[in-house]
TrEMBL record:
This is GmrSD restriction endonucleases C-terminal domain-containing protein. Signal peptide: none annotated. Pfam families: GmrSD_C. Keywords: Membrane, Transmembrane, Transmembrane helix. The lineage of its organism: Bacteria, Bacillati, Actinomycetota, Actinomycetes, Bifidobacteriales. InterPro entries: GmrSD_C. The keyword NADP does not apply. Residues 112-249 form the GmrSD restriction endonucleases C-terminal domain. Coiled coil: none annotated. The chain crosses the membrane at residues 37-55. The keyword Transmembrane applies. It comes from Bifidobacterium pullorum subsp. gallinarum. It comes from the Bacteria.
Length: 262
């Protein structure tokens, strides 16, 4: 055995033990042997948790071995049917190609923003009696868990934004670049892919997939990921390997999660 790879001797191990004990005594001001053992046990537990939680996030191989990406249930089953594409490109992307807020499918004179506000807010009032333009309401935000009092106005409307659950840029990269204008407009204004959300959370997410952003409200993560899966299944959009792993990591905690119905 080479000198650089020799086994630690009893002397080395004793020295390590003494150094660790000195560090514990100095750092935690512990002199009682029993208390010192308790501190060392706590340190060992913390290190073990860090290894178990952090390493799977850093290394996909470790994640596979630890079952980080093993999930079951209806939403996970649909996820397994989606194409995996790790060669996605945002070249040519332009938000305007999706015609967001440029359609009025029911002919009531209001675009999809007001349709979503009327659906997702409580205690809704309208700018005119019998109209469809939302003046105010209360949003129990699914992304953050916050309650937001919405009032229409130049300085206040942005507190509640309309969120594409599968972002338009993400859709472009995962298949929408090959669609015709009609299909992109349908996607851009599809109520199934839209939620009223806290403005700051929507801005923070941007165009990120589940691999890079999840709601801070952990109670909504399973449903959020399941809806993304539902949207991608509906429009035959792909996922990346990292995106799929992130979704599986969420779904492993909720094996009964269904894909939300339209």
């Amino acid at each position: 055995m080479s000198r650089n790879h020799r086994r630690p001797s009893h002397r080395d191990q004793s020295e390590f033990t003494r150094n660790t004990a000195r560090y514990v005594n100095k750092r935690f001001n512990v002199s009682n042997p029993f208390e010192r053992v308790l501190v060392l046990l706590v340190i060992a537990v913390v290190v073990g948790v860090m290894v178990g939680v952090v390493l799977p996030k850093i290394s996909p191989e470790v994640g596979e071995l630890t079952g980080e990406y093993a999930a079951s249930g209806p939403a996970a089953d649909v996820l397994e049917t989606l194409r995996v594409d790790d060669a996605q490109s945002k070249d040519g992307y332009d938000r305007d190609l999706f015609g967001y807020r440029e359609t009025d499918d029911d002919g009531d004179g209001c675009d999809v923003r007001d349709e979503v506000l009327a659906r997702d807010l409580e205690d809704v009032t309208f700018t005119t009696p019998g109209g469809c333009q939302v003046q105010s309401g209360v949003l129990h935000d699914l992304y953050t868990g916050k309650t937001i009092d919405f009032v229409r106005g130049p300085q206040t409307s942005s507190a509640v934004q309309i969120e594409h659950v599968v972002a338009l840029e993400n859709a472009w990269q995962s298949g929408a670049r090959d669609w015709d204008t009609a299909k992109r407009y349908k996607f851009g204004n599809d109520m199934y892919n839209l939620l009223a959300a806290d403005g700051e959370a929507n801005s923070e997410k941007g165009s990120a997939s589940a691999a890079y952003w999840l709601p801070t409200n952990a109670d909504f993560r399973c449903e959020y990921v399941a809806r993304q899966i539902g949207v991608k299944d509906k429009y035959d959009l792909s996922v990346t390997t990292k995106e799929k792993q992130a979704m599986l990591s969420v779904l492993r905690s909720c094996p009964g999660q269904e894909v939300p119905a339209e």
